[in-house]
Amino acid sequence: MVARVVVLDYGSGNVRSAVRMLERVGAGVELSADPRLVQEADALFVPGVGNFHACMRGLRAVDAPRMIDVRLSGGRPVLGICVGMQALFEGSTELSVDGQEDGLGEWPGVVERLVAPVVPHMGWSTVKAAEGSRLFAGVEDERFYFVHSFATLAWQLEPEGSMAVVAPKVTWSEHGSPFVAAVENGPLAATQFHPEKSGDAGAHLLENWVASL
How many distinct structural domains can be found in the chain? Predict the structure, then answer.
């Protein structure tokens, strides 16, 4: 049976590459923000490009915080990428004049500017995949494509506080200093890199995700 994936349509740049890559790995894909389609889909894919403020404004405009909460409360898969991952944390210091702007709060922690000689981090980098990762099975040693100036620099969620029965699987990368490159936490997963722009390695990762639905 073909897994049905909704790519959330909230004005986040060019999402056609995500739609094409998900179709390439065998998913049935629809680009939509319709609440019924979002809830009925086997999985929700949350893209994100640009800055945190624009991303959050777009998500709120289509009632995405509620839709994501409803899906997760029912144990239904959600995958966020790039700024779509950053939005899942408590907030970000990007473009904020008073400390941070609130995110969706699915995970604790604040997205901060990378501590590196050159920012943004743009290009192909390896990751240190979490032990037992399902997303990275078969591509643990591959490189993925990153384009970002902000990231989560510390992981704050203790195993007993997670939504999953087991501890979240946290994958790291490094640009100047370590940052969180991906998280697998029960039905909720996310990557800081763009799997849809990461060639065969990204396709394999998304195929792993679709196969788990």
Answer: 1
